Amino acid sequence: MDTTYLKENQDRFLTELIDWLRIPSVSADPKFAGDITKAAEYLKARFEEVGLDNVELCPTAGNPIVYGEKLVDASLPTVLVYGHYDVQPADPYELWDSPPFEPVIKDEKIYARGACDDKGQVYMHVKALEVMKQEGAFPCNIKIMIEGEEEVGSNNLGIFVRANKEKLKADVILVSDTGMLANDEPSIEVGLRGLSYHEVEVTGPNRDLHSGLYGGAVANPINVLCKMIASLHDENNHITIPGFYNNVAVLSAAEREELNRVPHSDEEFKKSIGLPDVYGEKGYTTVERVGIRPTLDVNGIWGGYTGEGAKTVIASKAYAKISMRLVPNQTSEEITALFQQHFESIAPSGVTVKVKPHHGGEPVVTPTDSVAYKAAADAMETTFGKRPIPTRGGGSIPIVAMFKSELGLDTVLLGFGLDSDAIHSPNEHYGVFNFMKGIETIPHFYRNYAAAMK
Ligand code: BES
Ligand code: MN
Ligand code: MN
Hints:
Keywords: Hydrolase, Metal-binding, Protease. The protein is an alpha+beta fold and 454 residues long. It has two domains: 4-192 and 363-452, Aminopeptidase (3-Layer(aba) Sandwich); 194-248 and 294-358, Alpha-Beta Plaits (2-Layer Sandwich). The chain contains twelve helices and 18 strands. It has helices at 4-21, 33-49, 119-135, 155-163, 221-230, 253-259, 266-272, 286-291, 332-345, 371-384, 399-407, 432-453, and strands at 53-58, 65-70, 78-84, 104-106, 109-111, 141-147, 172-175, 187-192, 194-203, 209-210, 295-303, 313-314, 317-326, 352-361, 364-365, 389-392, 411-413, 429-431. Strand 4 and strand 5 (109-111) form a beta hairpin. The protein is globular and about 80 Å long. The structure holds ligand BES and manganese (II) ion (2 copies). Ligand BES is lined by residues 117-118, 150-151, 153, 177-179, 189, 192, 195, 359, 361, 393, 395-398.
């Protein structure tokens, strides 16, 4: 493909993305509700500009879904593109080198919350449509659906998908919301982990107590919570919840060998995040620990006195947010029940424990022998000059399993992010190279896919 148009328009593409990134579309915090609407409307206007038809904001019980389509010929296949315009909260703001919603380009990278996850990657699709429009050819039918609640579990999108099966009829789903190994090491994620997320509350005495008058004679909810959490892993870092591993798919030695063939260095891994050593479940490599094994992590823990100086107190309550990443063939329903039951059962008699489940999501593995996967791999090979390798990613995109179960459709995870892009962290960024490579690669995917489906 001639990349002249891309080069000539790169600055405008970036300016448009930056204008969108300036809108703080944080879905977790209701105080940003107005900005969510603004971000959705901004995208809708860009959809219209690139010539999509039937562009609309589809209302849900929560944030609107931005939808558009280009239906060129009923005899051609249809690709449904999915992504999200909501972003994670930017806290803690003081750890950003430049404000999260005042995007800057530094060292060929766009710094802003959402730059990579997922506004930057969604915007590649919008500009890829512009490129194809300008070339005068849409090789297949395209529907695009960008939601505003991925970072909070996609519950309303789930309802929307179930209620709109005809509207969303397609042959395959295309998503750019994952990463690749390195800019000179293209790869395609073929697995996503599921999720089971909980908030737990441990209650001891009916009020905060003087830790001298009562200390030693009552169960301290924070001590108890720490002990309970510590007991969830054994000395080999296996998770101790009875039945937790029952349905975990066991890979053959050959499959594990294949998986470990991806370029990975524990030394570089440690260096990249400032760790003195790697850590995890005994008997598995880092690649396996992230890709094919389930995990349990505390995401936050609080209670008692955390202010200046010292206060001698036994708190009445202690809290934690605990999540588990799931792999095939675990289900969030099964694991949620097992966790709840186990966590309540290990509480000592001196406290009461409540477990409140949050959102869940199911694990998926996408095929590597499909027409769509090959179209994506060929597209990347063309634009990167190197055949991408399949990898198993550690993150979650809850709707992908539902695309399979509700619409019967496989997904291709054509992502261009890097682990070092700091998604969900301060100083999230996205390479200009990655953004432009995405815009260049996506039209190849459509052409390859349409040609192979003939
Ligand atoms: N885009 C990410 C998921 C992701 C990132 C997958 C990189 C693979 C590689 C997505 O926006 C995300 O953050 N998902 C959440 C799940 C959600 C229910 C909060 C996650 O994985 O924590
Ligand atoms: Mn995302
Ligand atoms: Mn995310």
